[in-house]
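TOPIC: backbone geometry
CONTENTS: sequence, structure tokens:
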Amino acid sequence: MNILHLAHSNHIGGASRYAVRVHQALLASEHQTTLISSSYAKGIAESFPIFIRKNWVRNFFIPKITQTLDSKILNLEKEKLKKFKSPNLFGAVSAKDINKSNFDVVNLHWINGGTISLKTVRKIEKPIVWHVLDQWPMAGAQHYMDSQSLYRMNNNYSKESRSILDSGLDFDRICWNLKIKVHPRISAYIAISSWVKQMLLKNPYVNPEKIIVINPPVDTTSFFPENKSKAKIKLGIDPDNFVIGYAGATSFRKGWDEVSELLIKPIKFKRKVSWLFFGGASKPSKTINNNQKIYYFGQIRDDDKLRNLYSAMDLLVFPSKVEALGLIAQEAMTCGTPIITYRETGTATIVKDGINGMTISSFQNNLRDSIFELTCDDEKLQIWSKNAAKYAKDNWSYSSVVQNYLKLYKSLTK
């Protein structure tokens, strides 16, 4: 069995890491698998850039052109509140090339950014598996839906359901109508969490029988618990300090507004606390007050460094308001780091409250009090740490997850 994985990138962002890990898990089990991406970097076995005939000029320029076109065309829509959207009207991948290939199954991952157009997806004649990493596959053009988007979806993205504040081309409606014709071509949807499955079920054009929930794999040979004191010392942090971590973007969806509020109006801890930031988080000042020091490490892509950072944390704050699952949450738990997160999100499907972390309501405004409470209970956190690492190893190791993918692929090629 030969699997084609199609993703926008093999090296940028959490979505690319998901695609790469599924691909690597299959390679590790000695199965035929190829990862094709429009934003490509060397270094991953059996991973290649989009191949457009035997012409290196086309191979180099076409993906860049389609990405630019698919982004710039959004300027024809005038929205009062800008949202993260992908129209997928342009794409570098050819259905003709896929149909002529010897691949048995096509696994779509995050396919935006000019990778493949929705019209092209319709023309693929092989079984298609869609790895659903956010809400884009079940929505219009948005990647994460708000109440207005849900209202529009419930009204079939009719012209009348559009906000009177918006004008120009309606890409949500255009994209929705294209996807209506794509969904019958999908053989299976892999929802990365039960939360994603529930979102998929809201779309009347998605066949519920085609949805399967599989948490993405994590490379447990790269991510595992290090000695916490040694991990802190390696980063220049006092091993006696309680370390609270945050990793991710500075967006409202990721909950950065709540984290920054904790820095502006510091919690009065009963012990010395250090804050550890990396990823897309903005660089805060070095100190909040005498008891709280801040360490900032910027963008990190090296797994050994990431393992060190996660292992140094006593607690990861993961306050996303909308989240499909959370790559950072998975990696942190694999390194034995307990997480506090909101129970209304996909992350809460892996963080078991009171067992390997804490889930709280995003509506009760008790993040501050919950963090304070946990800094006073080392014994509880140590138990959660062991449970988090065990849960991750049992459920997300390559050998554990790959069988679920193989079972699905085989069922589609009978």
User: Anything to note?
Assistant: The radius of gyration is 22 Å. The CA atoms of residues 307 and 382 lie 18 Å apart. Residues 378-396 form the longest helix (19 residues). The chain has a mean pLDDT of 94.
